[in-house]
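Supplementary notes for students who missed Thursday's class. We covered one full example, reproduced here. Read the sequence, then the structure, then the short commentary at the end.
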Amino acid sequence: QVHLVESGGGLVQAGGSLRLSCVASEQTLSRYSAGWFRQAPGKEREFVGYISRRGSITTLTTYRDSVKGRFTISRDNAGNTVYLQMNKLKPEDTAVYYCAASEILTGVLDEPYEYDYWGQGTQVTVSL
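Structure (token representation):
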């Protein structure tokens, strides 16, 4: 079992930045593919971005269209922490953000069912 813990959420004005972090409490995240999802009230959980596991021949990242150029996913050097850097935030980015880890090591994982482990979520609120 992998327990994921997110941090870094909060309230920010439109145009501001936040950095979310995700760590695994008992195991290293480096061996898993990782993704970020978000869920706004009354909406389904949606894909935000993905990063391939540490040790891949090339590090692959991908993002939903609405965050491309604003959000960046990365890992620390040890691969134990996954970050979501969010810049130029918009009110429509307001949601609970979830970190997820997958034992699937190939392909771009952009569906919730492809992930095995989830964090508890962290609230991001962007005001006008």
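Commentary. The mean pLDDT is 93. Residues 14 and 90 are 5 Å apart (CA to CA). If anything here is unclear, bring it to office hours.
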